Amino acid sequence: MQRYAMLFGTYMGVFWILKFGCFPLGMSHPFLSLLFLAFTVCVPFMGYRYARLYRDGVCGGGISIPHAYLFTLSMYIFAALLASVGHYIYFGYIDGGFILNSCRLQLDQMAQSGLPGIEPVIDEYRASLAMAEALTPVDITLSLLSANIFIGCLLGLPTALAVARRRPASDSTHQ
Questions:
Q1: Region 45-61: what's the mean pLDDT?
Q2: Does a structural domain hold residue 175?
């Protein structure tokens, strides 16, 4: 089980890294932001597909709910670990404050819009940005890792329920 969870987790982790690449680029190109959201919606379907491949190819067409949950959870954990490497490289060596600066620019545009009652929201958002500036790349990476593992725990249960089924009976018993 671990071998296939690592294999499919690697595929999913690479997908998550590519998906994450659309996030900062989406701040200046709206289509890539939409693509990031579309890729995010694809994640549970990929998890289901990989769990089905594991069930049918390795488990002989049948898998229990606990086994399926353990497999999907392991797969999501391996994917999150690989994606964390990409997150650390991005925030440690590539970003250079780009995401925070983009958020500040959007905040300034909101402030200039003159919408009534927006000032408290803008003040709270500025305080959040000030807190985010204090985070190191390791802090951000660990936060994203724990969020991805938590989401994997949540997605694993419906995936396991959808994939689980009894092993098909052999043809020799029906003669």
A1: 94
A2: no
